[in-house]
Amino acid sequence: MHSKTFGDVSIDQMVLRIKDFILKDNTHKYKITIGTDSQNKNLTKVVVVVAIHRIGCGGIFFYDIKQVHKISNVRQKIYYETALSLELASKVSHAFAEANIQEDIEIHADIGTNKKGKTYPLINEITGWISGEGYKYQIKPYSYTASCIADRLSK
Q1: In angstroms, rounded to a whole number, what is the distance separating the alpha carbons of residues 26 and 24?
Q2: 80 pLDDT exceeds 90?
Q3: Rounded to an integer, what distance in angstroms lies between the CA atom of residue 6 and that of residue 142?
Q4: Residue among 87, 81, 91 at smallest CA distance from 15
């Protein structure tokens, strides 16, 4: 994982940075979100992000960038993005348990409610999958970790 603030970090180091961030000001509420977005060029650039939002006071984020063979099919791309988010959420959840961090993780999916959009038909499948894995979710326009942070880093 990488952070503009902390540089390159392992999952365990990231979790310690998150814990420090939360303990620094425990008077606020926090929202921890994970989201993925990708962009096609010659390859598909995929960015998965862990964001920690101190409600009302900003936040920090960590990200990982992968280059994979070009994924042109929208359904395959959304499934791949969701799988990466869920895989990272599982790792972070286990690390949170070991570090005694009691924060829930929310998955931000890069799918939208625009009935004319390419991802609209996938809403029930993707949200059902995320819920089935035990996570809360957000979709556009509320999935800012995927549709804003990861989107910006994937360009």
Answers
A1: 6
A2: yes
A3: 27
A4: 91
Query: Mean pLDDT for the chain?
Result: 97
The reported pTM is: 0.96
Q: What is the DSSP track for the chain?
A: -EETTTEE--HHHHHHHHHHHHHHTTTS-EEEEEEEEEEESSSEEEEEEEEEEETTS-EEEEEEEEEES----HHHHHHHHHHHHHHHHHHHHHHHHHTT----EEEE-S----TTSTTGGGHHHHHHHHHHTT-EEE-TTS-HIIIIIIHHHH-
Range 130-147 average pLDDT: 98
- Give domain limits for the chain: 2-154
pLDDT in tens, 8-47: 999 999 999 999 999 999 899 999 999 999 999 999 999 9
